[in-house]
Write a structure and sequence with these properties.
A alpha+beta; B alpha+beta; C alpha+beta; A: alpha+beta; six-stranded mixed beta sheet; elongated; B: Ribosomal Protein S5, domain 2; four-stranded antiparallel beta sheet; globular
């Protein structure tokens, strides 16, 4: 369906450039992070990468722990591909793309142990904090994965506990106690088109992706989560190169926090 | 008990601070942001565009489809479950009715103009903020519109008639509260949204409607400026 | 008779509902309507006085297909007798076999040989019915399948500015960037000339789009192209 676009993009990649003149491993500019944009949330952040614009809000709820982890709280990540942000998104229950986005962001945070779930315990076996993270795109100009994951981290960094009297949460009173982040996992999605690798795809580039690998890494470069997407398979060499790019670019993105 | 002074110190006919901006969502055909106090609304317009399923198409005119949605973290209390509710569906309906009178979609048979209203943060008056944002977004999308639509919630707190009811007033513990959102076509003065919760006498309501034109014209001026500002000062 | 009062200046931006003039000897042009003594804006637009008529030029709005427009379309369906095309508007167009090419196409031929799904073609609108059914033809000078290059989308209302008087603006861009450019009335533009040249042409086009309502645009674009030109062979005047 996009033969001409694909061959044009590939010829640009061969000439070491892209549709908007960027280098292959260059993020769109500016990248901005605004903290605390939502007063009604316990924590929030707005991230822009180029024209992609995402708000993430964090709400803290008190609930019961899972039976097999009685002294641990948890996170719940939701993402909605809001029809406001992209003419291709249709109203209705979350499509699989929204679910994948939420689960990939979730894994990056959960598997890196960015939050110590034991610190989210209020009363073992009875009450725990649930950190509910909601991802809402305002404008989708490509690369929702990286922008969402960065915004989720920033929102967690911004989060303060609401007052809790043991029975009910008082959302109108925030305490000064901040949510503690142990690690900062950053997701970088590396795209393969033809035999070239790029990051931060825009709307046009996303149409001709052969394969993608979202790489989540923590401060010291250790990998904590991965997700391969796209219709084409990847060779071991491909993966090797993509991981290198993912880790290196993760360090660059992390500086914005 | 009379309501002597408003909880946040405003005058009885004073609105919360207002902010508006047009063209905030590049992918949309038209878009706008409208903020009143801590209530914040985005609106994006797509269309006229293809409409499916086919059975929804009208061969005589394009249709206007509105969707109002609160982001999960937008409420002052608990998280709002995503996916809409009966309340948000009803608000979507009255929003559509509030906007339709200014539009003429007869040149676009079988098509749809989609208006998506999203609220990242709410503190009373959200449906009116949504309508204000939506009407700017429709103009930004280049549709034929004979007027904009301006809206705000009026109300009665105890014995006083007030403009722009805020959250603390909505939940005023002592006296009765009436919440009356009104949307108006500013230049004709005609009302396209009128709802009410609470108790008022007919005289009080007519008095509020009388007050509404001036207040809504103030909102219209803000919307006008936001639309014109989009095209101002294009520096090299 | 009371003299009419014009409340806005030429080239001012006007919003729906705004009173543009009062009086019976000013006439309501496109984008405006009369309400009693008042002439009122019927859209967001740029005020233009044309003799005694006041009209509003659109600054935005999706493309509305018109007969005789030359547009760039994408093939979205291939049937037995023709193709269905995306026109970048609310309505798709039909290209039937008989209008597709000057060659003779046999009945039952595989139409994808000519135009396949995803191909972009330059065509001309032959007819638009009241129900917005659109017929197009590929028979005519310059009408063809587009190969290579890239396609960008601009607001269709900016197309006249991008083309310029008698094509002067687009010719200036073509010469400065050495690119082939085809501008569709529907806001799709095809550009072919190599990465750096295409990028410069696109930047110039986006600049025209953003500043289409300002004056002195031709000189500004000329300056922009000269400042950012990709090194090329010089030529004599």
């Amino acid at each position: 369906m996009y033969k001409e676009l694909r061959s044009h993009i590939i010829s640009l990649l061969e000439a070491n450039t892209r549709l908007d003149g960027r280098k292959l491993t260059e993020y769109r500019q500016p990248i901005t992070i605004e903290y605390g944009v939502i007063k009604t949330a316990e924590g929030s952040a707005r991230v822009k990468i180029g024209e992609t614009d995402i708000i993430v809000g964090v709400k803290l709820e008190v609930g019961e722990p899972y039976p097999d982890t009685p002294d641990e709280g948890t996170i719940i990540v939701g993402a909605e591909l809001l029809p406001m942000s992209n003419p291709e998104f249709e109203p209705g229950p979350p499509q699989i793309q929204a679910i994948e986005l939420a689960r990939v962001v979730d894994r990056g945070i959960r598997e890196s142990k960015a939050l110590d779930f034991k610190k989210l315990c209020i009363t073992p076996g009875e009450k725990i904090w649930m950190v509910v993270i909601d991802i809402c795109p305002i404008n989708d100009a490509g690369n929702l994965f990286d922008a969402s994951s960065l915004a989720a981290l920033a929102a967690l960094k911004d989060t303060k506990y609401p007052a809790f009297n043991g029975v009910k949460v008082d959302y109108k009173n925030k305490t000064d106690k901040k949510l503690q982040l142990e690690k900062t996992p950053i997701a970088v999605t590396v795209i393969k088109i033809g035999n070239k690798f790029i990051i931060d795809p825009d709307t046009e580039e996303e149409k001709v992706v052969d394969a993608r690998l979202t790489v989540s890494s923590i401060d010291n470069g250790t990998l904590c989560a991965m997700q391969k997407g796209g219709d084409m398979p990847l060779s071991a060499e491909d993966i090797d190169k993509m991981l290198d790019i993912g880790i290196e670019k993760g360090k660059e993105l992390r500086k914005h926090l | 008990m009379t309501y002597k002074q408003r909880i946040d110190g405003r005058k009885f006919d004073e609105m919360r601070p207002i902010e508006a901006k047009v063209g905030v969502i590049p992918r949309a055909d038209g878009s706008a942001m409208f903020k009143i106090g801590n209530t914040w609304a985005y609106a994006a317009v797509y269309g006229p565009r293809n409409l499916h399923p086919k059975f929804m198409q009208d061969p005589q005119t394009g249709i206007l489809r509105c969707s109002y949605n609160m982001m999960p973290f937008s409420s002052s209390g608990e998280r709002v479950r995503p996916g809409g509710s009966r309340r948000s569906k009803e608000i979507s309906l009255v929003t559509q009715k509030a906007l339709l009178p200014v539009l003429n979609l007869e040149d676009y048979p079988n098509s749809v103009v989609d208006v998506f209203i999203e609220l990242p943060q709410t503190e009373a008056g959200s449906r009116c903020a949504g309508i204000c944002a939506a009407s700017m977004a429709l103009a930004d999308a280049g549709l034929d519109m004979k007027d904009l639509v301006s809206a705000v919630s009026f109300g009665k707190v105890d014995d006083k008639l007030v403009v722009d009811l805020d959250y603390s007033e909505e939940s005023y513990p002592d006296g009765g509260v009436a919440d009356i959102p009104i949307a108006m076509l500013p230049n004709s003065g005609k009302i396209s949204l009128l709802q009410m919760d609470g108790e008022v006498t007919k005289e009080e309501l007519m008095k509020l409607i009388g007050m509404s034109k001036k207040v809504l014209m103030d909102i219209y001026e803000v919307q006008k400026k936001a639309l014109k500002d989009k095209y101002k000062g294009v520096e090299d | 008779m009371k003299m009419s009062e014009i409340k806005v200046k030429d080239k001012e931006i006007s919003v729906p509902g705004e009173v543009l003039a009062v009086g019976m000897d000013v006439l309501p042009g496109a984008g405006t309507y009369r309400e009693g003594e008042k002439i009122v804006a019927n859209r967001l637009g740029l005020v233009m006085m044309d003799g005694r008529t006041i009209k509003l030029l659109p600054l935005s709005g999706r493309y509305m297909p018109k007969t005789n427009d030359t547009i760039i379309c994408k093939v979205i369906d291939v049937g037995f007798n023709g193709w269905r095309l995306d026109t970048n508007s609310a309505y798709s167009a039909m290209l039937s076999m008989k209008d597709a090419t000057s060659e003779f196409i046999q009945r039952g031929a595989n139409l994808t040989q000519y135009y396949d799904l995803g191909d972009h073609i330059v065509c001309q609108i032959v007819n638009v019915t009241s129900q917005k059914l659109i017929d197009v033809t590929m028979k005519g000078p310059g009408l063809r399948k587009l190969k290579g290059g890239r396609i960008i989308e601009v607001d269709a209302n900016k197309v006249p500015r991008i083309i310029g008087k008698q094509g002067s603006m687009v010719v200036m861009i073509k010469e400065a960037t050495q690119c082939n450019i085809v501008v569709g009335q529907n806001g799709l533009i095809w550009i072919d000339g190599g990465p750096m040249n295409e990028l410069l042409a696109i930047q110039a086009i986006r600049k025209i789009s953003a500043e289409s309502h300002t004056t002195g645009l031709t000189d500004k674009i000329k300056g922009f192209l000269e400042q950012n030109s990709v090194p090329k062979k010089t030529h004599q005047d």
